[in-house]
Structure formats: C-alpha cells, structure tokens
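User: quick one, sequence for these tokens?
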C-alpha cells in the first residue's frame, strides 16, 4: 500500500484493511456504461450485499470530483448509475486529466485495479474484462486491462471475456505478459454468457483456499502483476450459445457500419448485445457478477488468514 494524496478510502474500508479483515473491490464502468438504469444501480447494491453476505467489506471504486474513491456511498452509486454514459469511462490513461480537472470517472478494470492497489485491496470482482478485440491485427484495439494485469498485483475475479473479443488472442497476450489465468472449477476459459469457450486455461482451482494459495505464492515470488480468475456463469443462468453468438455477430457488424472506434467500442457492443437479446443477456450478466462477488469475498477471507 502506498499513501496517495488523491485517494479517499471510505472509513469502513480503511477500518477493515487496518484490522486485516477481507475487502473486495468493485468497478464502476459496469454501472455507468455496462448496464441500463435502474438495473445498474440495483445490481451494484446487490453485488455489495453479496460481498457482505460472504464475509467481506465491499469497496466500489470510482473517480468523483477528481478524487479517487475506494468505497462509495449509496448516493454516489445512484449518481453514477443515473448519469450513465454522461460519466467519463476512465481507463489508465484518463486518470491524470480527470484528477487535474476535478472531474468524475467510471473506472474500468484497469483503473479499478490501480485504485484498489493504492488503497491496499488485493481482490477485485467484476463481470468481464476487456481484451484483444476481433480484428486487432489491423485496429490494434487491445484493452489496457491486459497491461494492468501484467503490472498491478490485484486478483481479478471475472466470468472470462465476452466473445465480442478474440478470446484466443486475449489468452496469447496474457501468456506473453506473464499473467496467470486460473479456471475456478473449470479447465476451460468461460465466455461470460456461456460456461466454455473451447480454449483451455493454464490452471484450475476448485476452492477459494486454492486461489488464495496461488495468489500468496505469486506475491512471495515478488511478481509485480496480478492474477486472472475466471469463474463460469452458473449453469442455470447460462445462455444458449447460438442465440448469443448471433447477437454478437450482429453487434459487431453494426459497430463496423457505424464506424464505432476506440473507447466507445466496448460500451457500444455491450449495449447492442443487450438490445438484441432483450432482457435475457442482462439477467445472465447480473447473475454472473453476483457469483463472482461471492467467490471474490470467500477468497479475500481465505487470504486474510494468511
Ligand atoms: N466487458 C464486459 N462488461 C463490461 C466491460 C467489459 O463484459 O462492463 C467494461 C469493463 O469496465 C472493462 C472495460 O474494464 O469495459 C474495457 O473497456 P476497453 O475495452 O475500452 O478497455
Ligand atoms: Mn479499446
């Protein structure tokens, strides 16, 4: 942990950290850019409750008025959800300008990792991470989330990555950058809405204790980077692969036709997939995030005993 004059850690969070109790970081791009209002606010609060129910303190992370926040109030979560895309999507490169201007930002996986690490939080739960986009060999669109995983020592619990990305290239990139990819109860990389992608993961862990042991070993080795835990969506909430694949293909074609580029690409594709599948994909999305929050809380608890 490093003191940072731009960071505000909520009292409940700093108390827990000081006492060595488990804390789980949560991101805010998923609130402002990943889901529609009011489901986004409702989900963010349910995710926090799930973390609590599993024995840890939640710390939802965002930039508010130029301050880096580890732990938000209910009102701040409501504000981020209601404002939606009116809040800047903040990845690593956006933080300096937002801080200097006293602006607001919804933090991506990359930025949530940065702020969590500053606050001394080592476990973070989200839905899906950014990765190597399809066609990246031409566009060079590779999410800063992957570089952050290579740099910052935070465990990220996700449901894999959506097939809007090139999952094979995403795994290659993570391998090159030395990021351990662990399947939780699976040997296959989950594809967010579905439990499998056809791509194998490096290692499998079946309990939160095993995850904690791997993360501890990584720390003891003095590695600078993080660890990616991929936790498949519960079977009963998984989507039909043909339905979701068709929606993704249509969303990708629409993005191309409209010339969507840069940081707009991921939010555009996510919103389009929700539109194309009706409420189904949103319900799956919510369920998998809750499931990740549970595993992250149990793992943070296992880690706090070490
Ligand atoms: N993938 C999802 N849901 C999300 C995101 C990705 O299934 O909400 C968000 C996360 O905040 C992630 C960001 O960090 O999008 C990646 O954006 P980009 O590809 O522009 O780096
Ligand atoms: Mn990008």
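Assistant:
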């Amino acid at each position: 942990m490093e003191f940072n004059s731009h960071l505000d850690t909520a009292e409940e969070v700093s108390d827990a950290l000081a006492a060595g109790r488990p804390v789980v970081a949560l991101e805010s791009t998923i609130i402002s850019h990943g889901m529609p209002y009011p489901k986004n606010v409702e989900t963010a609060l349910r995710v926090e409750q799930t973390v609590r129910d599993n024995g840890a303190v939640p710390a939802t992370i965002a930039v508010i008025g130029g301050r880096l926040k580890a732990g938000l109030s209910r009102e701040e979560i409501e504000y981020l959800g209601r404002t939606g895309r009116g809040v800047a999507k903040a990845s690593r490169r956006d933080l300096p300008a937002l801080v200097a201007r006293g602006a607001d930002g919804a933090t991506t996986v990359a930025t949530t990792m940065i702020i969590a690490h500053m606050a001394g939080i080592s476990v973070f739960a989200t839905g899906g991470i950014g990765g190597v986009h399809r066609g990246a060999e031409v566009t060079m669109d590779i999410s800063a989330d992957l570089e952050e995983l290579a740099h910052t020592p935070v465990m990220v619990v996700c449901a894999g990555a959506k097939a809007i990305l090139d999952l094979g290239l995403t795994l290659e990139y993570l391998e090159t950058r030395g990021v351990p990819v662990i399947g939780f109860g699976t040997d296959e990389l989950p594809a967010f809405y579905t439990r499998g992608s056809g791509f194998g993961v490096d290692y499998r862990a079946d309990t939160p204790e095993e995850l904690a042991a791997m993360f501890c070993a990584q720390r003891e080795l003095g590695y600078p980077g993080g660890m990616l835990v991929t936790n498949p969506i519960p079977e009963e909430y998984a989507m039909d692969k043909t339905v979701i694949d068709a929606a993704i293909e249509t969303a990708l074609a629409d993005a191309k036709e409209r010339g969507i580029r840069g940081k707009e690409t991921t939010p555009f594709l996510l919103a389009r997939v929700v539109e194309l599948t009706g409420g189904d994909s949103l319900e799956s999305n919510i369920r998998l995030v809750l499931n990740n929050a549970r595993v992250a809380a149990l793992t943070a608890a296992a880690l706090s005993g070490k």
